[in-house]
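fwd from M.: "can u put these together and see what the complex looks like"

so here's what she sent:
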Amino acid sequence: MMLLETRNLGRSFGGLLALDEFNLQVPEGGVYGLIGPNGAGKTTVFNLLSGFLKPTQGEIFFNRAKITGLPPEQITLRGIARTFQNIRLFQELSVLDNVLVGCQGLSRAAWWQAALRCPGYLREERAFVARSWALLLEAGLAAAAYDKAGQLPYGHQRRLEITRALAPAPRLLLLDEPAAGLNPQETRELMDFLRAIHQEHGLTILVIEHNLRLVMNLCQHLTVLDHGLTIAAGPPGEVRRHPEVIRAYLGK
Amino acid sequence: MTVKHWLNLGVVGLLALFLWGAGRWLDEYQVRLLNNVAVFITLAVSYNLVNGVCGQLHLGPNAFITLGAYTAALLTMTPAEKAANFLITPLYWPLSQITLPFPLALLAGGLVAAACGFFTGFPVFRVRGDYLAIVTLGFGEVVRVLANNLQGLTNGPLGLKGLPPCTNLWWSWGVAVVTVAFITALVQSGYGRALKAIRDDETAARAMGLNTFRHLLLAYILSAFFFGVGGGLLAHLITTISPSLFTFLLTFNLLIIIVVGGLGSTTGAVLAAVLFTLAGEWLRVVEEPQVVLGLHIPGIPGMRMVIFSLLLLLVIIFFRGGLLGRREFSWEGLNDLCRRFLKI
């Protein structure tokens, strides 16, 4: 069964066609990759899928329901979480609080219940704290739980952002260049971490990445974009030999 | 009940004892000063909720304070007093006859302000940053101009005189304690955490499934409610109100308080509200003629403000994040401090 499906998705900014005729089908449990040169429209795809941009044409289906045009917070609650290319942590909050905010979207308690510390709120809060600690332990960030997120080393910030994205219990995780700025050692650790969460949480992952080693190792299927158009799609081994892909990356 | 709760109750008890003593032994001027302090604590702490905790530069608290002040005033004055006030244009009908007890009038002031917060919140939170500042600033001006011109409701520039002096130490400090307790509890809950997350990165907060508009609107409405109640207290403390009392200068004073205290720190807001109100009075000394080292210095009106600005500059230079930054008072923190102090 396809978890995510786009049909003729497109987005233009004024006269610029950032994405056109984009068709993607991601089955449940898969790890899919989205690659392409800079400015190919990869992040536009993510912004459309996560609701930060409204498509100018086409439809998005998630879990067989149409989610085209829904606001980001509703899309997240339906089960699509994302990270950002330039890390967007809550810098001033602690590492633990960052993950707790990730849980907050699931909260059922009203504000007055929270302010008056009603039993329902307290129960929910305890569950969120337990969940956040479990996620931090899994990510190996528990020792830094009370540090300010902005003061973590860069690699840990990347990892925290992914951990935070797991907090609202997504089914599909969108990772925007998770290995950007990481050294080879950190990239290997990240790959292990991604494999672990993929299995543990029964996740489906869609990843944008320039690091080809990560992409080739992790993904079962790649889609290649260039100038907003899909120029190739298929298993990594096939895609890397595709003449259009070589042309897009290296020129003629 | 944990130790912390008992300690909090203890502080409230001590405050009550202090107020009881103050009511007995302090003179009228000092009591008035204490009342002022309490009202400014209420206003500053609720202002800090929107400006400090949510990080939205809201410049319209004077609008909500005006609404609360006028609503409460019109509800507590007796029909005879109203008739004596509204000489040019009579007050609209049901209002001219209604008289409510003070607590209900305060509550009504808060609710009217909150309702207004609800309706203005929709346009306000369509924008962010400087634009939000301008929209709220404009809203403050709109309310002031309306108060000047809706003669049949506000008596225009003449204002309202002879309000019953209902605000006493118990009311002003009672409201201050409730405001501080409620807002602190909210800020320390999951809701407050979400508000701080929105301050740090709204896009990321939305990606986490938070409806940021609703969160911000809630904080805005809650602060509006407490502004309204604070306005009602202020009106019944001064007993004479007019639109000129609620200009942007009032907002500006509150802004100074929360910036000096540390944006985002409730403790800082309380501390700065106390300092600001008391310093404003103590510095009156410098405006009186006096002899320093044989030199006769005539009283210079406005000298207070010069010194005030200098103090502000010092805070800005040496305490970039305000006196407390984003730190908060906590019993645990006090405990740590005591231990460290005793060891050395």
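replying to her w this: The two ends of chain B are 33 Å apart (CA to CA).
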